[in-house]
Amino acid sequence: MELRINGKRVRYEGDPEQPLLWVLRDELGLTGSKYGCGIGVCGACTVHVDGRAQRSCMTPVGSLKDRDVTTIEGLSADESHAVQRAWIDEDVPQCGYCQAGQIMAVADLLRQVPNPTDEDIDRLHSNICRCGTYYRMRKAIRRAAAYLRQES
Amino acid sequence: MAASTVTRRQFLQVTLTGTGALLLGFDLTRNAKAATAADLNAFVRIEPDGTTVIGISQPDMGQGMYTTLSMLVAEELDADWTRVTTRQLPLMLTRDEQGQMAWKLVPQGAGGSTSVVDLFRPLREFGARARHLLVRAAAEQWQVPAGELTTEPGVVVHRASNRRVPYAELASRAAGLVPDETPPELKAPENFRLIGKEVDAKAVTEVVGGRAKYGIDVRMPGMRHAVIARCPYFDGELIEFDDSETRKVKGVIDVVSVPGPAPGAPSTTLASGVAVIADSTWAAMKGREALKLRWDEGPHRLETTASLDAACQAALDKGDGEVVRSDGDVAAVLDASAQTLTRRYRLPYVHHATMEPQNCYADVRADRCTVIGPMQMPSGASRLIADLTGLDRMAIDVQMTRLGGGFGRRLTSDYAAEAVLVSKAAGVPVKVTWTREDDMAHDYLRPGGWHELTAAINGDGMPDAWRHRVASPSKYYRREGAKLSESEIYSDDPPAGLIEHLRYEYFAMESGAWRGSWRAPAHTANAFTVQSFIDELAVETGQDPLEFRLRMLGEARELPYSNHGGPTWNPGRLAEVLRVAAREAGWGREMPSGEGLGIAGHFTFGGYVAWVAHVRVGGDGGLKVLRLTGAVDCGLAVNPNGVRAQMEGGACDALSTALAEEITIEGGRHRETNFHQYQLMRINQAPAAIDVHIVQGGADPTGLGEPPVPPLAPALANAIFAASGKRIRHLPIGEQLKADV
Fold first, then answer.
1. Could you tell me the CATH superfamily of domain A2-75?
2. Cβ contact, residue pair A132, B641, below 8 Å
3. pLDDT exceeds cutoff 90 at B564
4. How distant is the alpha carbon of residue B231 from its chain centre?
5. How close does chain A come to B439, measured CA to CA in Å?
6. CB–CB contact B649 A94 (8 Å)
7. Fewer beta carbons under 10 A from the terminal one: N or C of chain A?
8. Which fold is adopted by the domain A82-151?
């Protein structure tokens, strides 16, 4: 089958049950998407499928025919996406392991709710950060929303 | 002289190749670039475009090493901060004249909040030495005395002739100079341009771009992937296995058994198991599912959380424990006292649950070995690997990646041992990856236990006598020659030194669970119990919890502290962070119904932290943490933004742990299998406001990875009491607040 990942076409002949996460990491060398739990509860593996956040550890690669996958490596060419800039400006990461997934999830959250309240954030954002960077993350989400408003 | 200069140049070229070789394969592009850059020492590389690449000797697990350590070097180098980038250095060891292994340049590792303490002077010296070489190079170039030259960020300046030259133009000449024997004088603190200032953090863009490399991301030529089915039972072992179905799985290459540690002996690996080696992680996981395994459930098969809880309480009921400290005559004062208070508290086993599961790459050859992974203690890994392989330690190349969290889990190098054993047995370079289920089932847990505190209250409402009895399984159970009590109760911890009659006792409990160091080890348990009990005493005697603490602490003075973080501690510094946190939180103000403020402070590994928690407890028992206000005295705060980050993160870590984290035991193994059961806090439970105030109570820095954690849980529990009248004595809080509804 043919996959479309970060705008590139990729031939895939392996096990269709293999989760997208492991295809990205082991076969394509796109290691920005992280393995955290393998059961879709932590969000470290979050990518976009047709523009919507999806947990790649629970996405069989066989389900991706004619779908567009975007990983953190494809979110922007130079860390210039509003969410990435906000993450840098608020200095969110500590260990950083979960942050690619956080950023992918927030990029989709802001597409759904461009100007989220605290309650929206609490309701819609569920990725785990073990270092507890949530305070800066919340500020960065608001800052990213402001950047996106400026851009539009 | 000319001959010696030439020799020095040749030596530098060799060194450069040597460094390149150490890093080879992990980042080839950077090495290619390095060939034209000038290395002034291991920590300072200046590239032709003016980029200053600072070597980071310590592992980074989120504690901000890339920025904070760079600041130390860059300060004395007088580097242009906007042009500073970083690179991770490998483990650097040497053999001294007696043939003993020694640090080549600086101690390397991350644990005990020591990195900034240990490296504060050495890293500034490396920066100063590099700067001095650049000044000497400019002096040669301009034919002026070095004493007439000064530096500004990234340039050498000759004021008399109004000439300036960027470091990049001097770097190759400077690299050829023979360094002075004695290090140059360091800057006076009033001349710091970076230390203590707000600076932009380093190495963040690679994280937000998904380019940062963790151990689990290592990809090397010829590398195979392995997962291991480990015995889930404490001290259990593999009886037999059948891999015939596994070997039929597409992509599976080999199956090898992995030995466990001897019972009671220090960990090599954590547990025995069977490794499946495949051409992808997925194939290895599929192969493992097809294994038929038979485990001996081991000597602890009947252990449960309830059995350990009961045993701890029975121990406290029955009498005296081992005396860890005894001042005055506690029994006599308690007997004679008109008013005493006794309370018991319960702590759970907690898991490190690093977001990056354990993993490691190893390539073991006949005469050498390369190991790449997320290690807190690379030298410990090197020592263990030498034991397992028989290789000379100088033939073991240990490279640290970023760590996706540490919290003490990666002080033990069992996952590196596994990778080495699997690579050796299978004869291929291999990366061993733990699944989350593997990680959740096998950890070196923070010991749980029960604490009993008793105080005699005098006519003035203050404690005259204090007894603290701890019943817990020690984390030193596999450490030869260590006293079991030493890891669970620190003999000089306050209120020792503050109360004349004081006694600490320890009851060593049996448990099979794997135990180890969890961020601020025993301080997490002891700060919770002591700071909760102090709150209870204040309430019991009708005093304000802040005033009560300040009365207990008394005036500023140095008291002996023989445990880690000493040699002294100062109650005045602890009082000051309590006062600042209280003032900034508006302590003493009228609170709306259902809301409350709670306070706690603790001395941990040289640093003083106080937290005030502001919470609301709803009529339905729902808990909302509205605001945390912290004050920290870590001496000189080298990187204030990093200090705030550790305070904020440490508070959330402690909050998450207090709310819901517990590993329960059933049938001699962990019951929780993944994050759906081991509940880590998400953003909806995190406070929307965390204020941090930095107090400088000392001239030198102390570490800050751990000190923010211990006082948070008791501040939270005390706030819950203030808000609701419900006293939390058992952690985690879980559903306790809802139980009354």
1. Beta-grasp domain (3.10.20.30)
2. no
3. yes
4. 27
5. 10
6. yes
7. C
8. DNA polymerase; domain 1 (1.10.150)
Q: What is the band of B410 on the pLDDT scale with cuts at 50, 70, 90?
A: very high
ipTM comes to: 0.98
* Closest-CA distance of chain B to residue A150, Å: 21
Answer yes or no: do A38 and B674 touch at CB < 8 A.
yes
B592 CB-near residues (< 8 Å, 6+ apart): none
pLDDT tens-digit profile of B678-706? Answer: 999 999 999 999 999 999 998 899 999 99
Of A22, A44, A135, the CB nearest to B355: A44
CA B432 to chain centre: 23
Q: Mean pLDDT over residues A100-116, rounded?
A: 98
Q: Over range B331-356, report the average pLDDT.
A: 98
Nearest by Cα to B398 from B88, B118, B69: B88
pLDDT score for B265: 87
Q: Helix, strand, or coil here: B741?
A: coil
Structural domains present in chain B: 2-202 (3.30.365.10), 215-299+358-433 (3.30.365.10), 305-350+445-739 (3.30.365.10)
Amino acid found at B722: A
Q: Determine, for residues B209 and A32 on separate chains, whether the beta-carbon distance falls below 8 Å.
A: yes
Instruction: Give me the mean pLDDT over the B571-580 stretch.
Output: 98
Nearest chain A residue to B402 by CA distance is A95
Closest B-chain CA to A33: B210
pTM: 0.95
Secondary structure in 3-state letters for B647-700 = HHHHHHHHHHHHHHCCCCEECCEECCCCCCCCCCCCHHHCCCEEEEEECCCCCC
Residue-wise pLDDT tens digits, B261-276? 988 888 999 999 999 9
Name residue B662's amino acid.
Answer: E
Could you tell me which chain B residue has the CA closest to the CA of A46? B210
Contact A96 B207 (CB under 8 A): yes
Tell me which DSSP letter residue B89 carries: -
End-to-end CA distance of chain B: 86
User: How far apart (Å, rounded) are the C-alpha atoms in residues B672 and B421?
Assistant: 28
Nearest CA in chain B to A19: B282
